Amino acid sequence: MAGTFTESRTREAFPESPREPDGVPAAATSALLRLDLLGPLRAARGGLPLPLGPLKQRLVLAALLTRPNAPVSLEELTDAVWPDDPPRTARKNLQVYVSTLRRVLDPRDLGRLHHGPGGYVLHLTADECDSLRFDELARRGDAELRAGAPCPAARLYREALDLWRHDPLCDLAARAEVLRDAVARLHSRRLAVYEAWAEAQLETGEPAPVAETVGEMVARHPLRERLRSAQLLALHRVGRRTEALAAYDDCRQQLSRELGLEPGAALQRAYRSLLEDEAAPRTRGAPAGPRLLPPPLADFTGRDRETEEVAARLGREGGPPVLLTGPAGVGKTALAVRVAHRVAAHYPDGVVAARLCAEDGTARPWASVLAELARALGCPERLPADREEAATVWRSWLSGRRILLLLDDAPDAAALAPLLPPAGTAAALVTSRGRLPCLEPADRTELPPLTAEEARALLARIVGRDRVEAEPAAAARIAAAAGLLPFALRAGANRLSVLRHMPLGRYADRLEQPAEALDELASGGLGVRSRLASSWHRLPAPARATLYGLAALPGRAFTLLDAARALGLDPRGAQRALEELIDVGVLAAPDLPEYAASVPAEYAVPEPEVVAHAAGPWPGRPEESDHYELPWLTLLFAREQAAARGAPCPA
């Protein structure tokens, strides 16, 4: 009684800090509840674990979670807790367990867990329960597949499958048949989603993830023909044909031995496809062309629209080079590799990638790159030392062949000139930090930074969804501080994945310190500063001079008038200097005037005063109020470089 009286008086004395019956501050009870059953049972609110009590109470919760948002009868709960011999007090004990769970899960008693006509109902949303989230993602994947979009479908299915940490309720299921039945249903659903993912993934032209994971699923379900079909196709398309043939033979024998059946139509079609692809190179009298591409990134996130667009352009015969542009670290190479894997089947004579710049950013000699490509593709022609003659021989050899060249990190259009194939069956996919205005004709795609949602998803894939969901605001700050650039996000996320003890908020604090950000965005050999240094050294001297001047600005957002004052130029001269930065891929083109509402307050700059310049009054043309935004990390690096020269820069 004394304890109760003290608690009551404390609430009266401090009404601004009410506390709930379980001792949790009221502010905390509004934090996101999370219940997970795709693995050991666990519960958390706001990222902090919740006490679930003794074994029987956890069994009650597990039974309720097998049918969220639907009634679970007292009989089913009784069977889950006492499968053999329930006591006479079972009903009363269940009421106690439910009452305790109600206080733990919903301290404000807002009806999350209540008793209705059919039994007890636990109300949850897809954001609060991993099995509901799994079903929601799978349904969205189904919808994308029906709409003919395998890339987003595969991504959604994969996100659903990644929610599985272990066998569902693996710490409790063995104790009750009702739980074992529910787990069996979940496994069946998982298998169907995995098969849908494997088929969608194969449609994207990237079979490697399927080939790497399908063996584990086949070991669990050796007679599942849909799964075996995916296994055959994946192994075949990654070049593991002997294993594909052995997998078919193993399945055929098991079906005959255990069921007395022959393989079904779908599995036989996959087998015939394998045999026909095997015979085709022998019919032509030559082996299939080489596939010399880097592996696609396992954590590739987003870019569905760009992937579809670029793949469609490369699927058309006779088109111009396809050009991907954007600043360093925006993910051009990752997207190009992903697309090249996807469309490789359209280029049976070979798909080969070559870098046009060395790691330090210097351009490689054209003769070296051309010789590398010729060797990779088996070109028997002797290439002359003269640039134009070599280009003529190269194009003549490519003519009529279905070959895709991935020319990565082109420094300028001149470096591409001797390498590009002639119009016809061969194609080129080019990435460059600059816009290459002299490369005409070309199908151009400028790659922007990730969206905030894509950046959050990438961070979650590397550091773990639980950590990101526990600190969503901090995750958003990390993404913003990394400029929404995939390279910078990976560097920071890899660092966080090692520093498991570090809260995301603390790491975000570090990134928001200009003097520390570039040091923090590094993990092992993955460092943003070295990537920026490579870009810096390949910039033309006038572009570097412009960045030295812009480093003195207080933030990354500025107008043409701000730039003119910082550079000591008239507006026309400043505009030419900024346009050069746009051409080399350092600066984005001016945004619309309403952009200012989206600039974070800490990076915004006050509206400039229109003052007279030494050379006379500012002309009043509208473009002089254009708004620009220098990438945050580029600005920090420019400040470092300016400081090394002794120039004053903002703190």
Short characterization:
The chain is built from 28 helices and 15 strands.
Q: Proportion of β residues?
A: 5-15%
* Chain-averaged pLDDT: 83
The amount of helix comes to 40-55%
Structural class: alpha/beta
Termini separation (Å)? 59 Å
- Any guess at the CATH architecture of the largest domain? 3-Layer(aba) Sandwich
Q: Which CATH class of the largest domain applies here?
A: Alpha Beta
CATH superfamily of the largest domain: P-loop containing nucleotide triphosphate hydrolases
* Stretches with pLDDT under 50, minimum 5 residues: 1-29, 280-287, 592-620
How many distinct beta strands? 15
Alpha carbon gyration radius: 30 Å
The overall number of domains is 6
Number of helices: 28
For the biggest β-sheet, the strand order reads: 6-8-9-10-7-11
Largest sheet: 6 strands, parallel
* CATH topology assignment of the largest domain: Rossmann fold
Tertiary shape: flat
